[in-house]
Amino acid sequence: MDNEHRRTVNMASSEADNSLSQEEPQPGDLIEIFRPAYQHWALYLGDGYIINLTPVDESPAAAVSSVKSVFSRKAVVRMQLLKEVVGADSYRINNKYDGDHTPLPVSEIIQRAQLLIGQEVSYDLLGSNCEHFVTLLRYGEGVSEQASRAIGAISFVTAAASAFSVLGLINTRSRNRPF
């Protein structure tokens, strides 16, 4: 991707991870936050604030790095300071879908985002996650490469398990033949 679409910043050190990170986020930018086991997504509103999904049953502070958020069925749309949500993790500005999807006008993105603050929404890791949420705001269409990869992996494991099951059944039947 080009410099305009991907920039990395480490909030803990306040120094750039690489030469692409010299730019500050702009309103409407997608923010990819690198958690230890997954990536969390937010949308930059401006003045240091982002909008993101957090678990319903957690305070905003506790939800910052909770793995529990991945397994929740409901989420709350919150406006929080980017630096507080990132904490000691790193993030990058990642408008990776701009080549395939046209971003809505920034004023519309921000207006749509502000209308949702404080709302409780359905959450599903594979069908309606934080990346789907922010891409829906930016492009008018929810997209998640992370979910697509997970669905692909699940499909592969399911197919492999089915194949091994069938092979086991065939082996069992051939051993039970009376010849």
From TrEMBL:
<keyword id="KW-0472">Membrane</keyword>
<keyword id="KW-0443">Lipid metabolism</keyword>
<feature type="compositionally biased region" description="Polar residues">
    <location>
        <begin position="10"/>
        <end position="24"/>
    </location>
</feature>
<keyword id="KW-1133">Transmembrane helix</keyword>
<keyword id="KW-0808">Transferase</keyword>
<protein>
    <recommendedName>
        <fullName>LRAT domain-containing protein</fullName>
    </recommendedName>
</protein>
<comment type="similarity">
    <text>Belongs to the H-rev107 family.</text>
</comment>
<dbReference type="Pfam" id="PF04970">
    <property type="entry name" value="LRAT"/>
</dbReference>
<dbReference type="InterPro" id="IPR051496">
    <property type="entry name" value="H-rev107_PLA/AT"/>
</dbReference>
<feature type="transmembrane region" description="Helical">
    <location>
        <begin position="150"/>
        <end position="170"/>
    </location>
</feature>
<feature type="domain" description="LRAT">
    <location>
        <begin position="30"/>
        <end position="146"/>
    </location>
</feature>
<dbReference type="InterPro" id="IPR007053">
    <property type="entry name" value="LRAT_dom"/>
</dbReference>
<keyword id="KW-0378">Hydrolase</keyword>
<feature type="region of interest" description="Disordered">
    <location>
        <begin position="1"/>
        <end position="25"/>
    </location>
</feature>
<keyword id="KW-0812">Transmembrane</keyword>
